[in-house]
């Protein structure tokens, strides 16, 4: 049971690694639309729900592959992490700002948040798809619960960041530097033959 619980910190690390840029984007959206916080929050949470379900179904589909190859899915987050390191080396670290200039009512803000967050969530999708594929059903439940808790935590962090510019500055300045290393750690976990894998040790 204790070995199964190791999936919780790994899933949390995967969420953090693939959503720090989304967090910076969420803080910016909340700051821009201070009078429509609920619409921004709803768009963000729906995005995470969509990405979680999509990742689960990708994992389920990939799970039909021969089990001896499932661990190789760890190469996906490792590759994303390596690409991010190269981007950092070349200074390409801009936070996506799609739909930032959009103004309008609550529905427009909701859609702007949803579209920009989903558009920025490809790394979340593939990383959690790999995690779902590499874990047993009990592990999948823990991954889903961890994803949900992390999404709510990120929302509260973003709300706090709007009121405390120092935290917002820290997120924008340093979060991008943590992402590649955390993705590589998650990828190595998937590549390793652990107790939560489909293959026995």
Short description, anyone?
The protein has helices spanning 7-32, 37-62, 75-89, 106-119, 122-134, 137-163, 165-191. By secondary structure, it is mainly α.
How is this structure best described in words?
The chain is mainly alpha-helical and about 200 residues long. It has one domain. About 75% of the residues lie in helices and about 0% in strands. It contains seven helices and no strands.
Task: Break the fold down into its secondary structure elements and pairings.
Layout: H1 7-32, H2 37-62, H3 75-89, H4 106-119, H5 122-134, H6 137-163, H7 165-191
- By secondary-structure content and strand pairing, the structural class works out as mainly alpha
Question: Domains counted in the coordinates: how many?
Answer: 1
DSSP, total strands: 0
Question: How many alpha or pi helices?
Answer: 7
Q: Biggest sheet, in brief?
A: none
Strand and helix order? HHHHHHH
The percentage helix is over 70%
Mean pLDDT: 75
Strand content: under 5%
Beginning-to-end CA distance, first to last residue: 15 Å
Chain oligomer state: single chain
The coarse overall form would be: globular
- Using only C-alpha atoms, the radius of gyration works out to 17 Å
